[in-house]
Amino acid sequence: MKHKHTAAIVLCYAAIAIFTLTAVLITGKNYTVYVNVPYDEITTDISFTNDGVAKITDTQYENGVFSATLTGVKAGRTDVTITSRNTENENERTTVLTSVTVLPTKVLFISSYEFGGNTFVLLGMVLLTLFTAFMFARQFRYRKKTLFFSYKTVLDLALIFFFGLQFLIYAALYVMAITKPERFDGWQVCNLAGFIMSAIFLVSIPAIIAYAGFLSFSNLSLIKHEGFAKNNLFGILISLALFAGAAMCIITAIKNPNSTGVTLPEIRDSIIRAIVSSAFVYFECLLVSVQICTRYAAMHEPKHNQDFIVILGCKMRDDGTPTPLLRGRVDRGIEFYKKQLEQTGNAPCFIPSGGKGADEVMSEAECMRDYLVQQGMDESIIFPETESTTTLENMRNSKVIADSKKENANILISTTNYHVFRSGILAAKIGMRIDGVGAKTKWYFWPNAQMREFIGLLAHEWKINVFFIAALVVLSAAFSNISTIIDLIV
Prior knowledge:
Shape: elongated
Number of strands: 12
Largest sheet: 5 strands, antiparallel
Number of helices: 13
Structural class: alpha/beta
Order of helices and strands: HEEEEEEEEHHHHHEHEHHEHEHHH
């Protein structure tokens, strides 16, 4: 079934490519040149330096615009001179000189990168980006129902945004191309295709600045309330990275605002702009995706059929009592326990999980066990896991305890709301199917903590990110110099 699904997707992509190529080959035999002339009455002269390569099949003059449709006759090159004269004053004239290359397929290329059928290239990009976004949306919907706790869920959602944004821009360009053909030619197709990543970024600048500002403000509030610590600086560091990345994208876009340069410095600047813009847009989409997935995981209410509630530990006070953050995780587990007991009559067991740090008087698991007992929980249903030092070890050791008590047990993770999603991903990596609930945190704590989760996810799945960034850089660099590539081919 999976192979049939993959084959169907490949066939759809092939169909889009074949449709686009066929449309270009059919319509590309004609190309209309538009000339703005400021005269009421005109006469025109059209001449070719190499007769028989191309011919004029239609001319029109309307609202100050003269148009001449060129049709390819045979393979070759020729220069075309179009001169429009004011009938009232012979000395007033507008002359357009352009070179024409006709391929063996009769497709015309004008001045290297303007070509017949360019609107169908845009239509092909519209269909390609729309179908790609649709496929990732379909995959995200499936994964959300079957295996939500996965980095691929984040990636699917990010790529929906990535290709969806491109679809919107290409669709707008296509509408412009068919409604205003006199203002839209092959130069715009090549230039805007190369500038697409920078365009997406430039459109998002207000949102980036607003988010970076909020991130810095929330981080300063965190330091004010919780005190200075290295872990409390993530928000400010990410804000600085966002501002720096935005500045780089703006500088590279201003330095080379088009993709039709042919000199080595122009090609170099286009490639730099494409690399910076595509990488930045990719991380933008990932950041938004992580925010959405993290929020969804935190707000999700699991089924009340759990056998074990694993409570993930964090730093306790010096006297061995839980901090507000740790207490919140335990209280959230107790809240779920009571609700399940009330609705189903089945009481889950607790697995408080966390080892003893070098500066702690007891293990985090023992601290949570004592607090659970203080809150009225029966000690006989509490099975502390006291050896773990990382979240992944929390999962692995807790799974061993759960498996020893019941085979194929349903396990719930109770942690802080921003930590539910990444905890689920780590659990899935060791074959642990879980649900999760999250304890609420102060508004100023969430943004900084979520940035830590974002960096943790990127670092944990660095191979996937390197692959996608490399692919995007290659494609963007190619599109950023599409006119040069076309010139070499033609």
